[in-house]
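@channel anyone free to eyeball this complex?
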Amino acid sequence: MSGSDLSLAAEIALDDFTLALDTRVPLNGVTAVFGPSGSGKTSLLNLVAGFLRPDRGEILFGETAWARARPKTWVPPHRRAVGTVFQDAQLFPHLSVSGNLDYADKRADTEAPGYPRAKIFDAMALGPLLDREVQTLSGGERQRVAIARTLLTRPRLLLLDEPLSALDGARKAELVPFLETLKTDFALPTLYVSHDVDEVSRIADRVIMLEAGRVIAEGGTDEVLSRFGLEAGRNPCEKASVLRGTLDQSAAQDDLIAVRVGEAVLWLAADIDLAQGSDVRLKIPARDVSLALEPPTGISIQNMLAATVTSIEPTKRPAFQAVSLTVGTQALLAIVTRKAVGDLDLAPGRAVYALIKSATFHH
Amino acid sequence: MSLPDLTALWLTARLALVTTVVLLIIGTPLAWWLAQTRSRFKPAIEALIALPLVLPPTVLGFYLLIAMSPNAPFGGFWLAATGDTLSFSFAGLVIGSVVYSFPFMIQPLQSAFEGPVQQAMRTAASLRASRIDAFFSVAVPMSARGFVTAIVLSFAHTLGEFGVVLMVGGNIPDRTRVASIEIYENVETLNYADAHALSLILLVISFVTLFCVFLFNKRFPAHVRF
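replying in thread with the prediction:
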C-alpha cells in the first residue's frame, strides 16, 4: 500500500508543457520512465530528487512527504533517501576516483541499511580504477564509478538518468551487465529513465510511459511495450507503431471510417462499433509507411501525415533503414531502403510526408 | 630612498590587502548569487558592478566623497558610530577601493561559479552534501582558478589606484598618501629620483603578481587537485 510506494501526484510547468503526474511507483524492482526526448522524463526524476519543486500537489516517499504545498513541506535534495546517477556520470574533476568514492562514503546515511564497500567495489569491478584520475576513465568506467559512488550514500531509492545514453555501442554493451548486476545483487528500488526499447525491456520490471508531460501508459514492461508495438529485438521489418486518434463518425464517407490523428484524418475501411469521439489506437506496420518530401498527387494511397524525422538507424538487413518520425507528439516508425534515405537526403529535423498503406485497429 | 617613500608603499600594501579581503567576503556571495539567479534585475546589477571599469575615477571619487561627508546620511552615520569622519581616512580609502575594484573580484568569480560548478552542486546534493558543505567541498576547489585570478587582480588593481584615492582620501602623509599619489607628489616637486625608485618598485610588484597568475593558470587546470 502507500507505505511502500513512491506517490507522485504533482504538477509543474516546464518550458513547453506542463508535467502532470498522478501515479504510484511500487518501491521494489526497476521501473522504467520511458518516452521520447522532451517528454518530461528527466523532469520527473528531478521532482523525485528534489532539483525541481512542484507547482502543485505532493510527492510522498512511503509515508514521508518530500514535497507538498499544504501543509507546506519541503525536504531538500540532500536529505532525501534517494541517489541519482546522472547521464554523464558527473564525477568531481577535482577528486581522484577514490576521492569521489570517499566523498559519498563520508556523507552516507548512517541510519539506512547499506552494502559493504567491498561488495559495491566488486560489483562495479572498481579494483583497477581506484588509483586512476577521473579524466583518464572511459565513459563506461565513469558510469561504474558514479553508480558505486551513489550506492555508498546508502539510498533507499535509486534514480538512473539514461546511464547508457552518453556511451557508444561497444561501451553500452560493456555497461549493461553491470546494470543487471545492480538489479540482481542490490535489490534497490530503481527509477530508470530511458528512451531505448531494448534497454527498457532488458532491465525494467514495469514501465511508466510519458508523452508531452502526461503518463500515457503504465504497467508491466511486456504488456506496455506490446500495447505500443514496441517489442524489442523483433525483426525490424515486422516492427510497427501505434498512433492514437479519435473516431470521427461525422466525417465518415464512402464506407470508410475517419480517425483524427492530431490535425490529420486517416481513412480506414473497417467495421467498428464505437461511439463518436472514442479514443482508438491504430497499429501501423513500419513496412507500410512510405516517405515523400512533397505531398504527392496521382497516387492511390489516401492516408498521409506530416511528420518530422527524428533519427535514422540501421536495421539487421543492410538494404533497409529504420526512420523514426514524430507526428505531432506521437512517434511513428518507417522502414525504407537505404537508397531511399540517400536519394531523399533524409536527416534528423527534415520535414516529410508519411504515406500510410495500411493501418489496423489495435486493442 | 628616503623614509616617506616606504611609508607610502606600506600604506598601499595594507590598503590593497584589506580591500582584497573585504572584496572576497562580500564578493563571493554576490558572485554566487549572480551565477545562478534568474532574476530580471541581474543585467542591471551586472552593469552597476561593471561601472568602475568605464567611469572616470574622478566621477566615482566625487560621488563617494559626497556620500562620505558628515552631512550625508552614510557619512553622518559613520561619524556617529565610530567617532571619526570617513572622508580623508583609511576606512574611507578602503570603501573607495572596494567600489573601484569590485568588478575585478566579481567577474572572475561569477564565471568560475557558472555552468559545471552549478551542476556539480546538484551532484553533491545527490550525495547528501548540504549546500554549505557542497560549496566548500566542491564549488570552491572547482573554482580555484577563478579565486586566484579574482584575488590577484583585485589586489593589483588596488595597488594602481590613483583618482578615487585622491578624491576620497586627499593627500595626507601616513594616513592617505599611497604610493601612486606619492609618485605624483614627487614629480610635481621635481623630485625625480624618488619618483623613479617608487615607480620601479610598483612596476616590478605589479608584473610579478600578474606573472604569477598567468603561470598558475598555465600550470594548473581550471580546478585544483587535492
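from a first look: The interface with chain A takes residues 116, 119-120, 122-131, 133-134, 137-138, 141-142, 144, 221-226 of chain B (CB under 8 Å).
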